[in-house]
Amino acid sequence: MSSYYDDNYGWYDVSCEEDKDFYFQTQYESVEKQCSRCDRIVSLRREYSICNSCADKIERGWDF
Predict the structure, then answer these.
(1) Considering the entire predicted model, what is its pTM?
(2) Beta strands in the chain (DSSP E)
(3) Could you state, in chain order, the average pLDDT of each consecutive group of 10 residues for the chain (64 residues)?
């Protein structure tokens, strides 16, 4: 099993070929853009505006 980090979804373990294909497809479809919360340059899908780190903080109740 391998672990991968992605600015769209964070850390996840890849346990089968289908998961690995999903990870690489997500990477292929992502573009470099600036997170609207932390201003870091990250690799995100076109429809996303915040990185996973900021999304996790929002879910935990952090206020920006």
Answers:
(1) 0.80
(2) 2-6, 10-14, 30-34, 41-45
(3) 87 86 92 97 96 95 80
